[in-house]
């Protein structure tokens, strides 16, 4: 079954200064908060409120002003930082087929579902007072995030 573009969905995004821009034609497949040390280093914040899209849903990808690096293997995520404002722009994972975007980089978050969980909570810099599930430890955090993403991809592929 070919993947059809949902023309009613369009979210624009960019780094803080707008030098790197991109947009998405389909709703994200996941949204969670990550407290791992790599996300802390990457964002310069206590956590990363990250929204995950499929690469096939990215359009108008203009990221020539980003420099990409991997903070640690695994996970095998290329994290882009803007060469102009030195802020996070966009990340790619799983053979560049997943796109991770800090929620703050999205122009309109009204179409984004709420966060579903906290991962790597054992690395938190402060407690978070919400009712979301909080997962600690590398294996458990990776497992629940991977399961969330796999289930969303399966739902997209199977049309359910």
Task: Please summarize what this structure is.
The chain has helices spanning 37-43, 138-158; strands at residues 11-14, 21-24, 30-34, 48-54, 58-62, 66-69, 77-82, 88-93, 98-102, 118-119. It has two helices and ten strands, in the order E-E-E-H-E-E-E-E-E-E-E-H.
Characteristics:
160 residues, alpha+beta, seven-stranded mixed β-sheet, 2 helices, 18% helix, 30% strand, globular, disordered N terminus
Question: What does this protein look like?
Answer:
This protein has 160 residues and is of the alpha+beta class. It is 18% helix and 30% strand. It contains two helices and ten strands; from the N terminus they run βββαβββββββα. It has helices at residues 37-43, 138-158, and strands at residues 11-14, 21-24, 30-34, 48-54, 58-62, 66-69, 77-82, 88-93, 98-102, 118-119. Strands 6-7-8-9-4-3-10 form a seven-stranded mixed β-sheet. A three-stranded antiparallel β-sheet has the order 1-2-5, with no helix packed on it. The chain starts with 10 loop residues before the first strand and ends with a helix.
């Amino acid at each position: 079954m070919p993947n059809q573009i949902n023309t009613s969905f369009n979210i624009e995004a960019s780094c803080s200064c707008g030098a790197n821009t991109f947009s998405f034609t389909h709703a994200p497949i996941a949204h969670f908060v990550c407290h791992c040390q790599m996300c802390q280093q990457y964002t310069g914040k206590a956590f990363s409120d990250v929204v995950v899209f499929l690469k096939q849903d990215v359009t108008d990808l203009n990221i020539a002003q980003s420099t990409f690096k991997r903070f640690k293997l695994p996970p095998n995520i290329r994290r882009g930082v803007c060469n102009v404002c030195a802020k996070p722009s966009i990340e790619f994972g799983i053979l560049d087929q997943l796109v991770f975007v800090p929620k703050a980089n999205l122009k309109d978050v009204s179409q984004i579902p709420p966060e579903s969980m906290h991962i790597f909570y054992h690395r938190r810099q402060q407690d978070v007072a919400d009712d979301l599930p909080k997962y600690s430890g590398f294996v458990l955090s990776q497992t629940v995030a991977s399961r969330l993403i796999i289930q969303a991809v399966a739902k997209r592929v199977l049309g359910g």
